[in-house]
Amino acid sequence: MDKRKDAVKKVIAAMTVGKDVSSLFTDVLNCMQTENLELKKLVYLYLINYAKSQPDLAILAVNTFVKDSQDPNPLIRALAVRTMGCIRVDKITEYLCDPLQKCLKVEFF
């Protein structure tokens, strides 16, 4: 787990200094289904930045967004909802509307 987190941190660091790391989209996407909140945040940050350039691959993230938007942990739900709202890809926007609406209606106690 730590190796994956360290690798994604390096990818994000390269991304923030302007390097094109879009070729790593599939590898980063494979790290998305994790219980580690820090790793999940890093992957979601990457997706926000590169989903538009990789729309066909970005659609693979939809199921994880849906699952995370129903998580009992409010931080994970909020992260999923925020990330879904930030992704501006026509191909996946339609898939994200229903989970967003459900998440906004459900109250977790």
UniProtKB/TrEMBL annotation:
Keywords: Membrane, Protein transport, Transport
Protein name: Clathrin/coatomer adaptor adaptin-like N-terminal domain-containing protein
Chief localisation class: membrane
Domain of life per record: Eukaryota
Protein family membership: Belongs to the adaptor complexes large subunit family.
Biological processes, Gene Ontology terms: intracellular protein transport; vesicle-mediated transport
Keyword Membrane in record: yes
Source organism: Brassica carinata
PANTHER family: ADAPTOR COMPLEX SUBUNIT BETA FAMILY MEMBER
Domain spans labelled Clathrin/coatomer adaptor adaptin-like N-terminal: 3-105
InterPro entries: AP_beta, ARM-like, ARM-type_fold, Clathrin/coatomer_adapt-like_N
Location of this chain's protein in the cell: Endomembrane system
